[in-house]
């Protein structure tokens, strides 16, 4: 079975920087048509403006996917440019710190709106488009949707309460939508990752180099992942090679979630 995504059209949200940008660039190098979508128009222009435009396999779309109109405009722009959509990667994520004892802290609702509800609405709208364009297609994959999640969904960190809740909800949304869309031959999966050497992590490590050894010490493979390693996992889930895989949350963390943080055997 082929891992190829050549000739397919993919929407990648949150693709102005970090892992989303890495996925979009990787898909483009693998021969896919890619819509790079993000709220940060300046960053989109800076990072991928040189490879996007008329007559090219990439386009950029600045949009706030918390707005329903933005979702409709994104899909319209994709179809106008490439006539169809085959892959959706929900990579737009936000992380904010939470004070779990502050009743005025609205970070949980903020994270749910950004990391869950926006992804769900885009998934619903994209699935409807995939179903429509597959009318008369009797067999084969109709579409693939991949959500970017986090190992925070299975870990508890006080300051990341809202982020952990939103990613745990995203994992459940992945499973629920996989069941709902299976009869339509649309697969829905997720990639949950740990520490990835993105631009933001590089900045953090420059300011707090002690975090590097802490991350590595808690990772059995004893290193930090590259964004490309997450992109490879996303490509697998988007390709025909994963044709019988749906509703799964694949963990790319170097084994980090396998460790007992206490470091002492239970008795």
Q: Mind telling me which CATH architecture this is?
A: 3-Layer(aba) Sandwich
Number of helices: 8
Q: List segments where confidence is low: pLDDT < 50 over at least 5 consecutive residues.
A: none
Work out the radius of gyration.
Answer: 18 Å
* Shape, principal axes of CA atoms: globular
- Approximate strand percentage: 5-15%
Strand order of the largest sheet: 3-2-1-4-5-6-7
What portion of residues is helical? Answer: 40-55%
Q: Can you tell me the number of structural domains? A: 1
Q: What is the average of the pLDDT values? A: 91
Query: Tell me, what is the CATH class?
Result: Alpha Beta
CATH topology: Rossmann fold
Please give the number of β-strands: 7
Topology order in helix (H) and strand (E) letters:
EHEHEHEHEHEHHHE
Give a quick account of the main beta sheet: strands, pairing sense, barrel closure.
7 strands, parallel
For this structure, what is the CATH homologous superfamily? Answer: NAD(P)-binding Rossmann-like Domain
């Amino acid at each position: 079975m082929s891992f190829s995504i050549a000739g397919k059209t993919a929407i990648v949200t949150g693709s102005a920087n970090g892992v989303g940008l890495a996925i979009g660039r990787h898909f483009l190098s693998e021969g896919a048509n890619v819509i790079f979508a993000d709220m940060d128009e300046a960053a989109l222009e800076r990072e991928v403006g040189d490879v996007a435009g008329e007559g090219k396999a990439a386009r950029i779309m600045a949009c706030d996917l918390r707005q329903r109109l933005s979702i409709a405009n994104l899909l319209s722009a994709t179809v106008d440019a490439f006539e169809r959509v085959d892959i959706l990667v929900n990579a737009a994520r936000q992380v904010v710190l939470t004070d779990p004892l502050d009743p005025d802290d609205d970070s949980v609702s903020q994270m749910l709106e950004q990391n869950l509800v926006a992804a769900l609405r885009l998934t619903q709208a994209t699935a409807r488009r995939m179903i429509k364009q597959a009318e008369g297609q009797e067999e084969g994959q109709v579409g693939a949707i991949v959500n970017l999640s986090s190992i925070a969904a299975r870990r508890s960190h006080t300051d990341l309460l809202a982020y952990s809740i939103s990613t745990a909800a995203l994992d459940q949304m992945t499973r629920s939508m996989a069941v709902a869309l299976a009869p339509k031959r649309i697969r829905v999966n997720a990639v949950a990752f740990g520490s990835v050497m993105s631009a933001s992590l590089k900045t953090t490590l420059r300011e707090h180099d002690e975090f590097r050894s802490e991350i590595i010490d808690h990772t059995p493979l004893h290193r930090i992942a590259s964004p490309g390693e997450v992109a490879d996992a996303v490509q697998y889930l988007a390709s025909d090679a994963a044709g019988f895989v749906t509703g799964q949350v694949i963990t790319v963390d170097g084994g980090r979630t396998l460790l007992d943080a206490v470091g002492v055997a239970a008795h």
